[in-house]
Amino acid sequence: MRDFTEEEQAELVATAKRQVDFDDQQREAAGVDVGRYARFYPVGDSRHPDAKRKKDREEQLRRTLEELMRDPEYARLYTELGDRLRDAETEADATIVLIEARLAEAARHIEDIEDSAARGPDGRLVFRYADGRVVYADGSEVEDEIAEGIIWPDNAPSAEAYFAARDRQRGLEALRNDWHTYRYDVIGDIRNRYETDDPPMSKGDLEDALDDIERLVPDASALEIARNPNAIPTPQVISLHSIPTGLST
Questions:
Q1: Is the pLDDT reported for residue 116 higher than 90?
Q2: Which residues contact 102 (CB under 8 A, 6 or more apart)?
């Protein structure tokens, strides 16, 4: 048997590689796992093995759900949860938008107060309470000898006004966090389970989810905040421990 030249060896290797590639491509197109990563079709391509398996799972899930929906009670709960999820998502999104708007107002209000505030010799903001106490913006008291030399503008905001504005801002931030937790960790997880769980949610799961949507909604009323933009909201922090097992934390 004669020896192959380097050029002939290279051509034989290239030919073999082309054959392997062709075989792999045909197997991938047929949905056969070739034991290597898919190289010829992107994940979104219908010929990609993962896409085929995903389609098969979705079809099985659809058939299972259709079977469950033949039970009138299951169908009622399933439909009710879908409707309640949609309403809760709309309500939560609108509430978050409103809180964000109130936060922007609160930030502007604090900025206006600080622009009008008096300053100590070192340039730090200072505020005076009705009882005469003088404090810095961080709440620490100003020494008497420094306070006596402060020149107070006629429109200098009071300490009560400043710290009330800061309290409102903090309350709104905490309230926003509550609603974000509710929207994404509670409702978002229920939505994900509702649409993608395999197997589908049971009757008990549906009932629990409906209860969670009502039970875990923050107490603070967005309507009350809208009516009284100066109100300081009292948020109800949704503890992650209160989120039932099965919901993302």
A1: yes
A2: 172, 225, 229
The first and second tokens of residue 73, run together, are 């009670």
Question: Could you tell me the pTM of the whole model?
Answer: 0.68
> Given this model, what pLDDT does residue 196 score?
80
pLDDT in tens, 126-136: 999 999 999 99
Distance CA 174, CA 242 (A): 17
Report d(CA 116, CA 112) in Å as an integer: 6
What's the one-letter identity of residue 210? Answer: L
Distances in Å between the Cα of 187 and the Cα atoms of 71, 100, 190 are: 25, 19, 5
Residue pLDDT, tens place only, 145-155: 999 999 999 99
Burial level of 179, CB count in 10 A (0-12/13-18/19+)? buried
What is the enclosing helix (H) or strand (E) of 89?
A: helix 72-116
Q: Cα–Cα distance between 112 and 187 in angstroms, integer?
A: 37
Q: How many CB atoms lie within 10 A of CB 100?
A: 13
d(CA 197, CA 57): 11
The greatest distance separating any two alpha carbons of the chain, rounded to the nearest whole angstrom, comes to 110
Neighbours of 182 (CB within 10 A): 24
Judge whether 209 and 119 are in contact, CB under 8 Å.
Answer: no
Q: What's the pLDDT at 49?
A: 57
How many helices and strands, by DSSP H and E, does the chain display?
Answer: 8, 3
Are the beta carbons of 52 and 31 closer than 8 angstroms?
A: yes
